[in-house]
Amino acid sequence: MKLSFTTLAAAILAASPVLADLVVPNMSYRTGPYAANGIPYADGFNDYFTLLNERDGGIGGVRVSVPECETAYNTEKGVECYEALRPQNPLVLNPLSTGITYQLIPRVAVDGITLYTPGYGRTSAKNGSVFEWVFNAPANYWDGASVAIKHILDQEGGDLSGKKIALVYHNSAYGKEPIRTLEELSQKHGFELSLLPVDAPGQEQKSQWLQIRRDQPDYVIMYAWGVMNQVAIQEAVNIRFPMDRFIGIWWSGSENDVRPAGAGADGYKALTFHGVGRDYPLYDDMQQYVFDAGKASGAGDQMGSVLYSRGVYAAVVIAEAIRTAQELAGTPNVNAAQVRDGFEALNITAERMAELGLPDFGQPISLSCENHGGDGLVRLQQWSAGDGQWSLITDFIEPDADILNPLIEADSAAFAQESGITPRCN
Amino acid sequence: MIYREAGDFKTSYRDDSQTFPIRLDRWGYYITLAVAFGIIPFVINDYWANAVLVPFLIYAIAALGLNILTGYAGQVSLGTGGFMAVGAYSVYKLMTAFPEVNIVIHILLAGGITAMVGVMFGLPSLRIKGFYLAVATLAAQFFLVWLFNKVPWFYNYSASGQINAPTRTVLGHAVTGPAATAPAKYLICLVFVFVLAWVARNLTRGTLGRKWMAIRDMDIAAEIIGVNPLGAKLSAFAVSSFFIGIAGALLFAVYLGAAEVGEAFGINKSFLVLFMIIIGGLGSIFGSFAGAAFLVLLPVLLKNLLVGGLGWPTDLAAHIELMIVGALIVLFLIVEPHGLARLWSLAKEKLRLWPFPH
Amino acid sequence: MDQLIFAAEVVLNGLMAGVMYALVALGFVLIFKASGVFNYAQGVMALFAALTLVGIQNGQVPFAHLINAAFGTSLHHFGWTVPSVLAILLTAGVMVLLAFLIEKLVLQHLVGQEPIILFMATIGLAYFLEGLGDVMWGADIKTLDVGLPQGISDTVEQVTANWFGYGFFIDRLDIWATVIAALLVAALVAFSQYTKQGRAMRAVADDHQAALSVGISLRFIWVMVWSIAGFVALVAGIMWGTKSGVQFSLSLIALKALPVLMLGGFTSIPGAIVGGLIIGVGEKLFEFAIGPMVGGATENWFAYVLALVFLVFRPQGLFGERIIERV
């Protein structure tokens, strides 16, 4: 036992990053209260880079090393990870935690490291003229809220006046994100919004769901995370809330969240910004080069699950940004500042996605100095309990820019003033 | 042999009652101070400051504060996280409202505000005792977290309720915000720790400390000999909360730079600080430091050993790290039930006699 | 009138939630009564029991991740599934084994120490068990299904709809939890009143030394009490795990039990039940009536404030032993 650990250690030490590697750390959480969500994401993130290394010899001929650091979704461990990773000259960080993201936003600007927070983090980071080092393409929380309402509009034939919509949210920074957007939208469309906060961890939600049963809102939108997801969906099933009128944000839409509720969860909808399932050519390569070769991350049983796909998608965008950076810089060994430029020049077209083996998996992403958040298109997926699968039910839907842009302007201006930043890009 | 008190004569009462009566201890103390103030600031790097020493120093302040309340005055508290939140939010409001005032003053004021809140939640201690008192402090914990999460004024109406520490300087060096250097962060925390530990030591051996200990050992008896339980208990709450408020303010402003109340100051924090003083040693200044060191440094050390040294998968390392910490706590208890402080003094006893134990 | 009916529904559901809290609190009370230990690890024990149950049910290989990492194998499942009843029995066996080990390795060495030290030992135990559970069975979320029904009870809905014109919502799982909790308490009471071991347990709770002097084996009693607490943790783990899946957060249900304990008294089984019911009803009613006015999510702190108000009038808890102070 001891011997094999030492040999294992020796093997891994021998394979530890050579200086010339591109370093893209994986700040994961495989323990703690959100481990169930963190594991598949981390696996997907690792596996894509393993695939690039095995199949293509890295990006532009330079291997990618992905040092993993366990944060347990804890801000203090996140700080430790950040400091531990920094001497390795990471190109991009993807902390997958609102708390750690907020904490790193001022620091990365000083230290010159790109922060990529797809689908989470600080929404107003979309405004690149204030948040120089932060990118949150392709979609953010406010896009999600806006698209959820658009979808409901669609369902209701374009009129929401007099309708009741309830927001069940994790009572934290993350859960509170959509409130302002929804309030604006409720004024615009004339629906009645009720807010139902649930304190973390969210194991006991009887009060909230009794309230929903009593008030009979027409739709429920949910921003939850961790155990709150499973309990909320279970309670919704319990009170026989019509599942197709229950829409979760993308962090409330993984297999883990619906499975414990069994057949009752059939028809539950969730927002998403990427495709689902393993029906993409990329996964054939993944099977061949990563899984069959025994190089899969973790237990190797997550391929194609929602959060795994999201991890892959994050890795795809980062890899493309590095590729763009290499083209711009004219050298394969890019540094963090060049990768930031690569992000700003990023242009992933639909054809490029198909080339990568992920046709129709994600939206085209084209970023610029001002726009760090992409177009924010979001689509919906629906759970089918019979097959145990998610399926996409809409095309990509555009968010309501008239509502969102002023909010983003206001929030980023507040940040700029607070931290004394002069907006760039003019 | 080497560590001994023979020949260490005292010629005045003042000398006799000093904190470190043994010359070697005194030297040790001076050397520690010299290293902490004179050497570490010049060699410290970002990792050591942000991941190891700054959190250790801040938790040491919190542990000192809780030890005054629980260890010296015998009042069990599980509201540490909530009181730290009061310190953090006070300092945030003060920093943003009065940017021209020095941050040190803000931090002290934050401690003062926390002291007032602490006294308020300490009032039930006059009637409720022992484990049951924990409920009053737990009420404080959950209520304060809820309040800071709910009332937008506390987080200046930001969209998500996160608070961010802007850059503030002391003597021209940034100590908060992203531009703060490792030595600056370390030194500001060290100065607070040094001053507060000195205050704690002198309070606890003076009249006030004796009153607290009398209340802890038996409050009715203490009352009979003339200790006013109202004054003693509430002063313990006030002083303790002052310390904890400063720890919270430093935790937010210097260490994290951004915080969200539920995540940074939740019930887990209360338990963590309580564990620190129990493991370190109740009613001991040294114990507060030892406990903070044990629970802050050991996980980092184990992580670096298991992941960095042996190359284990991070999740396995994290799980085994928990098992090792747990097993060590139990092991220490079996070897010496009264915490690390007692273990330390036993070790010193042994050293006095070494190498001739009989 | 409508408000009254809604309030009645909230009260009913609060009672049910209270039973779930009481289930967790029971484990604490049992150990506290018999050995004076405040067992901080009770919540983690519930998680560990539920993890073990699911692991056994699904035929997971224990320590698979560790073995795979060490030997480069890829073991995950034995490839069989175990029927629920058998799995529950096996898990109960594991909990007894755990109790035995805890006594042998920890408590035995701490006989006669102060309560705070035993409390500290359970902190260490909690850390250890949390790590052990993860290493043994993995940290991913697991679905727990032992055949307990879930969802709204149609009977209750129809009956109440006939009476009030509004069908009440009662979760069938909650009804089962109530029945099981009642059986559990009845069994515990019968055990402690009518069996030799039960009487011995009460004797130990009364006075360790007197019990020892009449020939009761303290070690046996401690193993027994910890086994029973482990079994109660298993039941709580099943109930809560059925609702939310088995994952780390299950260990946090201990937080729900704390105000119940404070209110009911650490030493009283009826106290745990009544305390649980009061907390359940109180926090649900408050959230229903006052919650919307102050922005909701009040349940966490209200439970403690409620307990606090009770304690100001009865400092030893509702059913706690009277505190007699002598100088």
Brief digest:
Chain A is an alpha/beta fold and 426 residues long. Chain A contains 15 helices and 16 strands. Chain B has 358 residues and is mainly alpha-helical.
Word description of this protein:
The complex is a heterotrimer of chains A (426), B (358) and C (327). A seven-stranded mixed beta sheet of chain A has the order 9-8-10-11-12-15-16. Chain A is globular. By secondary structure, chain A is an alpha/beta fold. In chain A, helix 10 (255-258) links the parallel strand 11 (246-248) and strand 12. Chain A folds into two domains: 18-139 and 276-376, Rossmann fold; 141-272, 3-Layer(aba) Sandwich (Rossmann fold). Residues 1-18 of chain A have low confidence and may be disordered. In chain A, helix 2 (35-56) crosses helix 11 (281-291), helix 2 crosses helix 12 and helix 5 packs parallel to helix 7. Chain A contains 15 helices and 16 strands. By secondary structure, chain B is mainly α. Chain B has a domain at 45-266. Chain B has 15 helices and four strands. Chain B has helices at 13-16, 23-43, 46-72, 80-97, 103-122, 133-150, 182-204, 207-217, 219-224, 229-256, 261-264, 267-280, 285-309, 314-335, 339-353, and strands at 163-164, 169-170, 173-174, 258-259. In chain B, the strands form two sheets. Chain B has a two-stranded antiparallel ribbon with strand order 1-4. Chain B has a two-stranded antiparallel sheet with strand order 2-3. In chain B, helix 3 packs antiparallel against helix 10 and helix 13 packs across helix 15. Chain B is globular and about 70 Å long. The model of chain B has no long low-confidence stretch (mean pLDDT 89). Chain C is mostly helical and 327 residues long. Chain C has one domain (2-313). Helix content of chain C is 71%, strand content 0%. The chains are: A alpha/beta (426), B mainly alpha (358), C mainly alpha (327).
